[in-house]
Write a structure and sequence with these properties.
Elements: E1 3-8, E2 22-30, E3 42-50, H1 55-63, E4 76-79, E5 83-88, E6 91-96, H2 100-112, H3 128-140, E7 159-167, E8 170-180, E9 183-192, E10 197-207, H4 213-225, E11 242-245, E12 248-257, E13 260-269, E14 272-283
Antiparallel strand pairs: 1-3, 1-4, 2-3, 4-5, 5-6, 7-8, 8-9, 9-10, 10-14, 11-12, 12-13, 13-14
Length: 285
């Protein structure tokens, strides 16, 4: 099974090796202070494919080419559904993606040689910034969007939405499944690169005034959910902390972080509570 990954050309003392690989995408961007690479004005990210029979050879060669003159933070990594190669200068790890200890050992080594912990791959393999960016788009392309098409039911009596996107060399998938109408229960799950779920959220909602059910969804809930991520006082899993439209008031309160959280969502009509939802979720390991 082929491996996909990203190589920053400027991280290598000689980038000729990249020309030997199958390049599926190229990104050239200007560096900023955030990258902490003042000797570079731009960098070139090459998304590549390496065949299974060549992965050992190329990861060994890459480990000898990583530049340590300017900084010691460079590494590159390549994944398929089963294994994850993480390549440092003169050191590489072949990780079983189902074995958490493999990731612990790799991270301990990387930290011991000075690499920042927050930059390293993890067993969950879903950095928070990547998760949030993907979720914002996924939610705006599914239930919150009145034009989104439902998928074929994944279970008896379910309603399903699906969104996927290729990010950093791997396919990320968002799937939302729910049951019911005025009283409903559901689950959102995010996958990255494998069929192993990485993040999820469960929710249960009740429309207290059933006469306002569809009206409340169309004028309050969906418009509020389309604003996911615009209010940094709550985590970006539902709508903003407050939203008003056509006599409706939407509120959302959350506790915790993306890794482990709870939340309560309410809709009021002319000051009267007409809808309430509870949610909780976080990282799956």
């Amino acid at each position: 099974m082929n491996y996909k990954g990203v190589i920053i050309e400027e991280s290598l003392i000689n980038d000729d090796i990249v020309k030997e690989l199958e390049i599926i995408d190229t990104y050239i961007g200007r560096t900023t202070a955030r990258e902490a690479t003042p000797w570079l004005e731009q960098w070139t990210l090459q998304k590549v494919i390496i065949s299974e029979d060549k992965i050992e050879e190329y990861t060994s060669r890459l480990s000898e080419l990583i530049d340590t003159k300017h900084c010691g933070d460079w590494y590159c990594d390549f994944r398929n559904d089963e294994f994850h190669f993480v390549v440092f200068s003169n050191k590489k790890f072949k990780l079983n993606r189902k074995n958490k200890q493999d990731y612990v050992d790799m991270r301990n080594y990387a930290i011991s040689v000075g690499l920042p912990e927050h930059q390293l791959p993890s067993f969950n393999d879903l950095p928070t910034n990547l998760l949030i960016g993907f979720l914002l788009e996924a939610k705006k392309q599914t239930y919150a969007n009145s034009n989104a098409q439902k998928q074929e039911p994944s279970r008896l009596g379910s309603y399903d939405y699906h969104y996927e996107e290729e990010i950093e060399g791997e396919t990320m998938i968002y799937h939302d499944t729910y049951f019911g109408g005025t009283r409903f229960v559901g689950e959102e799950v995010v996958y990255r690169g494998t069929n192993i779920p990485k993040w999820g959220m469960n929710y249960y909602g009740v429309t207290i005034d059933e006469n306002l059910s569809e009206d409340a969804m169309d004028k309050a809930l969906r418009p509020a959910l389309m604003k996911v991520g615009e209010d940094d006082t709550v985590i970006p899993v539902r709508g903003p902390s407050n939203f008003e439209n056509d006599g409706y008031t939407y509120t959302f309160k959350s506790e915790g972080q993306m890794e482990n959280f709870t939340g309560v969502e309410e809709i009021y009509k002319d000051g009267k509570l007409v809808y309430k939802l509870y949610c909780h979720g976080g990282v799956i390991e």
